[in-house]
Design a protein that fits this description.
The chain contains 6 helices and 11 strands. With about 240 residues, the chain is α/β, with parallel strands linked by helices. The chain is elongated and about 60 Å long.
Amino acid sequence: MTLHFLVESSTDSDAGDIVSLTGAEAKHAAVVRRLRVGEAVTVGDGRGVWLTGVAEEVAPSRVDVRIAQRVVHAMPEPRLVLAQALAKGDRDELAVQAACELGIDEIVPWQAARSVSRWEGPKAAKGRERWATIVREAAKQAHRAWVPEVTPPVSTAQLMEWTETHRVLLLDPTASVRLSELEPDGRDLVLVVGPEGGIAPEELDRLADAGAERVLLGDTVLRTSTAGPAAIAVLSALLGRW
């Protein structure tokens, strides 16, 4: 499979131009992936630009790629958003990584009532940065033209406001409507996944009263690390992405 790399900022490069990878990306290409001169690669900016080219110069500090073709991919519509509750250990990070590989378009860290992990003060910025790094690497591995944004963490009250502009879906094992029976209506879809122990009953009621829909993923209860990715797979099929 052709190796894929990311440039640090958006690019207007076109066929015939040289695009240079520098810093950690160049070192990764030259040292870890062992890229060789003459090898075909793809380069993206994470915002839809997709460049196909050939490596002309390869060094740990700089990799030059001669571009042969430029394609711009539009952001998928409707967009899929994951509101992932913070969880202990690396369970939320596993969810974020898999969600990115499977096609999520935006990730929202959610400080749920039952979240054992708490992002407060400087820890919030550090946690968001950690998730963004995971997302970037997962998007690169999956050869995605768009790298999902990781937003600042939100509270339940803030999540309730999303119902005004998005179709918010609560993954609830007690719901009567199956996610696989959902009929998309063109609005962006927000999947809300609870932490260990699930979404607290009072949060379910508050979000439902605000306009969110309770949906059943299946007959089994999944971990917080697998529920979101499983739901993304279902929605991707319903939306015709897969």
